[in-house]
Design brief:
With 426 residues, the chain is mainly beta. The chain is built from 5 helices and 26 strands. Helices cover 7% and strands 38% of the residues. The protein starts with 14 loop residues before the first strand and ends in a 12-residue tail after the last helix.
């Protein structure tokens, strides 16, 4: 029943890079006891796009696993939460939950699994507060039948489109874990949704306030992410900026409501001042538009204002298309919006990547750099504060990032802008 293209026991990997020369040092070697897969019959079928970090530097992330029992042909899925302490190369499993039923692989046929209630849903990101992790599982469900049996192998498709199916009859779920001991506190059913990115989450008395971008279905990822559809944005499925308020006394959702009344247009890639992560906050920055020339902007939204008043910045040049904005606070700043935004993008006319620097308070442009090559569209980014040596060491061998499309990463690093390496399931 095993797909020939996947070997059981594979784990989610990370690359280890020399930050000065951008040479590859090969896969990053975690020092851990049992691998996150836990066994040779368990494989990771999903991993969140972005981890989270505590103020002390502890890194948190999570994966969805599928374990099979060859003798009985029964499979089960788990959410596995793990962390890496500061200055540690060891990942430690903090908690896990079998939030779904058992999957009888004998029931796999040439269609879909007959009981969607036992299937795991897609998870792109998770909520993160001082004491809790909240995993929003969507109603875009993973069906192991095609994946494990190779059904329709003559019609290969991308992993997500081939193995996930939107199932409006099934509720989405919020899985809540306690960070201190990994306890699975509660699973809460909510109306069907697809969640992409988190804005922020924090605790307020006996409530968890969780802000995130939601969609009514999975078309953003299984339909509109294809080039043919990107060029026809009239049918684009725009998301919502929603606030969930969870009562931690009885573990119910007290409210699910739009965070602002502002009519967001294809809003994505939210960013906040990282010093306000897990705290009550005022400003969120995000991309709005269609990723087509002349129709994309960065918006600063006041989430405390019911009207959602915003200040926006749009490129002066129509062919300049921005995407994710990264907030970098000013040293010793006291105001939440005191800092700059580093906005990745590209110039379609010049076929080159760009990084624009904006004043986060006024949303005015401070400066811009143009890369020598075109950069990938839509890559997640992250800012790392870093002091450069006086003279970078010379590479001892051909750099890993040696192709023209990859050299831009080296260029950006020398400008102290960003680097993020992000892998998402095939």
């Amino acid at each position: 029943m095993q797909n020939k293209n996947h070997k059981f026991g594979d784990i989610f990997a990370a690359m280890h890079l020399n930050w000065t020369s951008m040479e590859s040092k090969g896969p990053f070697q975690w020092r851990e006891g049992p691998k996150l897969n836990l066994s040779s019959t368990m494989l990771i079928i999903g991993h969140v796009a972005q981890g989270r970090q505590d103020n002390d530097g502890t890194l948190w992330s999570m994966a969805t696993t599928l374990a099979t029992h060859p003798k009985t042909m029964v499979a089960e899925t788990n959410f596995v939460i793990y962390r890496a302490l500061p200055n540690s190369k060891k990942r430690t499993i903090v908690g896990q939950a079998a939030g779904h039923g058992l999957i009888n692989l004998h029931l796999c046929d040439k269609t879909r699994y007959p009981d969607p209630s036992v299937l795991p849903g897609y998870v792109h990101s998770f909520g993160f507060t001082k004491n809790f992790i909240i995993i929003p599982m969507s109603s875009w469900l993973f069906d192991p039948c095609r994946y494990l049996t190779g059904i329709d192998a003559r019609d290969p498709q991308p992993f997500l489109k081939a193995n996930y199916h939107w199932t409006a009859s099934e509720k989405s779920k919020l899985f809540i874990f306690r960070k201190s001991n990994g306890e699975h506190v509660k699973t809460i059913n909510v109306d069907p949704m697809l969640v992409t990115h988190q804005v922020n989450a924090y605790e307020d008395g006996n409530q968890i306030v969780m802000d995130m971008l939601t969609y009514k279905d999975s078309k953003l990822l299984d339909t509109y992410s294809y080039i043919s559809q990107l060029l026809n944005m009239a049918k684009y499925s725009s998301g919502k900026l929603e606030r969930f308020i969870i009562n931690t006394t009885d573990w119910t959702v007290e409210a699910r409501q739009p965070l602002t009344q502002r009519n967001l247009v294809n809003a994505e890639y939210p960013s906040i001042n990282p010093r306000y992560s897990t705290k009550n906050y005022t400003y969120a920055y995000m991309l709005e538009g269609t990723l087509l020339p002349g129709n994309t902007r960065i918006s600063k939204i006041n989430v405390q204002d019911p009207a959602g008043n915003a200040i926006t910045w749009s490129p002066a040049e129509r062919s300049h298309i921005p995407w994710e904005a990264i907030f970098v606070p000013s040293p010793n700043s006291t105001a939440e919006d005191d800092g700059v935004l580093l906005v990745g993008g590209f110039n379609a006319k010049k076929s080159k990547g760009t990084v624009t620097i904006l004043n986060a308070k006024s949303m005015t442009q401070i400066g811009e750099v143009t890369a020598p090559e075109l950069t990938p569209v839509g890559m997640h980014s992250k800012f790392f504060s870093w002091s450069f040596p006086k003279e970078p060491p010379k590479p001892t061998k051909e750099p890993f990032f040696s192709s023209s499309a990859q050299r831009i990463q080296m260029y950006f690093s020398t400008l102290i802008v960003y680097l993020s390496f992000y892998i998402l399931m095939g």
